[in-house]
Here is the input.
Amino acid sequence: MTTENTFQAANVHVLEQTNSLLALHAKIRDKYCAHQDFVFYADQVIRLLLDKARTLLPFKPHNVTTPLGEQFHGMAVATKVCAVSVIRAGESMESELRSIELGLPMGKILIQRNKQTKQPKLYYANLPDDIAERHVFLLEPMLATGGSALEAVSVLKQANVKEENILFINLLASPQGLDRLITAHPKIQLVTSSIEKCLNEHAFMVPGIGDFGDRYFGTTDSGAK
Here is the structure.
């Protein structure tokens, strides 16, 4: 699969590049953005991603009676849903998700790159017992080389989650990582706010945002106090 075809795939959903979204990106990509401001504006982008992902779930008609005694013909999600965050950066998306989904079960996956082999290694997974019966929001803000994403999807599939029931929710995606993930798992749904230009020699996305987890959780100096 070529990168160009990947971008046009029906299961890759890029947020509309509105002036409002570009303004949020200008805030969080700024190396001098203070930590509290980074979190504030990143949360807004995360909310947009989650709202988009929810529209990709199956729905069914759901009618209710209003206080005036009238019928309202609405909709309801037609499946059980859970979320799985890839530790640590994926946990940045949990708060916004909990604010829009009540009582949503959460799972965790810890994947780290082996210092010798440079390959991703699974260290920990804790998933809802009935995850195979659910649609899964897989939370991972950065899709760079795609190694960790591929490992996370494999963990879900080993737990009998259907590939088409996985919604990968992602802030930034590199062309290389995106192509690699969708080629390996063509039935997953992916939602992102930006497809970047490329990866540099250190496997950072360009123009990029730096280390999202460090900047979100304030564990390194982002360039501002």
User: Anything to note?
Assistant: The CA atoms of residues 132 and 162 lie 7 Å apart. Residues 35-55 form the longest helix (21 residues).
